[in-house]
Amino acid sequence: MTSSLARDLEKLNLGGGAPPPPSKASKNLRPQRKKGKAPIEPFRFFDLPSEIRLRVYHYVLFTPKRRRTQRAAGSVGASSKKNPPLAPASHRIALFLASRRLHGEAADYFYATQVFRLFHLQDYSKMPTVRAIAPQYRPSIATIELILGSSWTDPPTAWRVTPALGLEEMVRIRTLKVFLEVDPSHPVFEGFRISRDFYTNFSGNILHEVLARLPNLEYVEFDGWPSVRKSGGLMKRLLHEARAAHKKIAWGPERGWTDYDGEEFDEDAYGLKAQEAKAEEHRAQQLARLKAMMPAGLIPETLMPETATVVES
């Protein structure tokens, strides 16, 4: 048994036969030659046309992370509607810090496409006013907005046109937007305002100083809430200041004003006529009810404007 097994092992020649095919594992163990790879060169971004670069800047600066973002531009004026939602701060900072040239182009595009307010308002806007913008970015600003009407009984002390605003450095501005929230010169504010012309003079002086400091301004665009009349005292003063400074007048989309000066003289801006008509209708209904309940001799032909009184015989 043992001898036969030994003879069978002698017949098996492991060295003389053809070698077995190499396995996949042995192939993987063999050293492979490293192919030479070409060095990776950075993308030549500045070789792109300027239009495409601006589209890239807009995508990085004004693409919010969430679909529904909370508006951070306030709720009053053109700055609350025309300013697009901002991208996360990390994206904007990364773009500005990429290189000096990229920072220059991206920052110029950012400040040129935004509407910045001249003074601060309490409407939860996170956009900085022109006073908070660094001096190196002021020449890039293209549009600013002056919103009037808030704090008409006691304007803030910070609402002053001083050299700290840097208006003389804003050489790109061609249009100044003026938005009116309310006109305190209307008779409905009688008894609540300081005087009829107090806020009108205050606003007119501010606009006069702003127009004198902007070097290349051409247009003054007026807009306001529906309660503001173009024929009111405040608007007349502001229009006078703009025309005296030889600026062209434009009208914003919110109010829908045109160059026709007499279009609002018959309007009931604050609803006073509608309230009087409603009160008159209510008095007529009371009179009819009294006539139905009492004899005609007990009710006078005319009633007092405030309440109906019954005269006893």
Structural account:
- The protein is α/β, with parallel strands linked by helices and 313 residues long.
- The protein folds into two domains: 45-259, no CATH class; 274-313, no CATH class.
- 33% of the residues lie in helices and 8% in strands.
- The chain is built from nine helices and five strands, in the order H-H-H-H-H-H-E-E-E-H-E-H-E-H.
- Helix 8 links the parallel strand 4 (219-224) and strand 5 (248-251).
- Helix 3 (50-61) crosses helix 6.
- The radius of gyration is 39 Å and the shape is elongated.
- It starts with a helix and ends in a 20-residue tail after the last helix.
- Residues 304-313 have low confidence and may be disordered.
- It comes from Aspergillus indologenus CBS 114.80.
- This is F-box domain protein.
- Residues 1-36 are annotated as: Disordered.
- InterPro entries: AN11006-like (IPR038883).
